[in-house]
Amino acid sequence: MKRSNAAPEPARTQTRTQNPANNIQAATTNMKGRLLSTLRTVLPGAWIVPRDNELITLYRLRYKMAMEDEKYDIAMIFLNKILELDPMNLEAKLCKGDIYHRCLHDYPKAIEHYNKVIRLSTQDDTVHTRARAAMSEIMEMLS
């Protein structure tokens, strides 16, 4: 076996220059992928999309918290979010009427919401009975 004293042949260099923007984009994409992978490992529940009924339960809780703090504008926001998910949620419509009636003393809007509940519900529903009682209370107060 003969050893060659000749210097090793240098590696071939690329003759074509690469676009630096492509390198940055590839590096950014790689970093995003690694970050998402890490987050999925550390926070597995963060990637679960809640179902509508879970959101309605959460919004109802936030509504109750806002009412306890007497933050009626925030309570209305959460009632509206419930109605976005379930436009026929009569309980949320009734609660909006109650806020206008008992908290904001905006009786025309309260009457409007109570009327919606009465029209959309049957006479056997508790929301129907509550809306009619609240309407009677307003009418008695205004007369």
Could you characterize the architecture of this molecule?
The structure is a single chain. The protein has two domains: 19-48; 52-142, Serine Threonine Protein Phosphatase 5, Tetratricopeptide repeat, CATH 1.25.40.10. Helices cover 69% and strands 0% of the residues. The protein has six helices and no strands. The longest helix is centred in the first third of the chain and has 23 residues, at 20-42.
Features:
143 residues, 69% helix, Serine Threonine Protein Phosphatase 5, Tetratricopeptide repeat, single chain, 2 domains, mainly alpha, 6 helices
Blueprint of the fold:
Blueprint lengths: L19 H23 L9 H17 L3 H14 L4 H14 L3 H14 L5 H17 L1
Helix pairs in contact: 2-3, 3-4, 4-5, 4-6, 5-6
Radius of gyration: 32 Å
> How would you spell out the order of helices and strands?
HHHHHH
The dominant shape is: elongated
CATH topology of the largest domain: Serine Threonine Protein Phosphatase 5, Tetratricopeptide repeat
| CATH class category name of the largest domain | Mainly Alpha
Number of domains: 2
Please give the alpha-carbon distance between the first and last residues: 117 Å
Helix- and strand-based class?
A: mainly alpha
DSSP strand tally: 0
Q: If helices are DSSP runs of H or I spanning 4 or more residues, what is the number of helices?
A: 6
Low-confidence stretches: none
**Biggest β-sheet: count, sense, barrel?**
none
- What share of residues is helical? 55-70%
- Can you give the mean pLDDT? 84
CATH architectural label of the largest domain: Alpha Horseshoe
Percentage of β-strand residues: under 5%
- CATH homologous superfamily assignment of the largest domain: Tetratricopeptide repeat domain
